[in-house]
Amino acid sequence: MNLIVFMLVSMTGLALARVVTATVAGPSGSSTASAALAITIENDGFRVGSGERATFIPQVGRGWDFEGLQRAAMTHREPGARQVVLSAAPATPYELIIQTMDAVRSGPDGAALLPEVTLAPP
What we know:
Strand 3 and strand 4 (about 55-60) form a beta hairpin. Helix 2 packs across helix 3. By secondary structure, the protein is α/β, with parallel strands linked by helices. It is globular and about 30 Å long. The longest helix has 15 residues, at about 1-15. About 30% of the residues lie in helices and about 20% in strands. The protein is built from three helices and six strands. The protein has one domain: 2-Layer Sandwich (Nucleotidyltransferase, domain 5).
């Protein structure tokens, strides 16, 4: 009887947990997605894209500009792209990484933006 109660409680706890799906880039930092948008969390803001086309979104006061990040992601992504490669400075808090992943997964209207996230080393 105790085993059944334990199993029911365990399964209920799993049903309530939120699953964050992400993949991890290989040791070289390469991703299998060639059209994936690169986003880097830096100490003072976000860098969206790479090279000369990159856009920097600075922090707003003491907070992070997730709306600006969404706008930049919509501007920089290739049509039909679903993947983003996310890297972060070494001291980046876990909560900020998750908030960034959430911000780029869906746009301001709630529609899917870049739902497939790959984590890469900085």
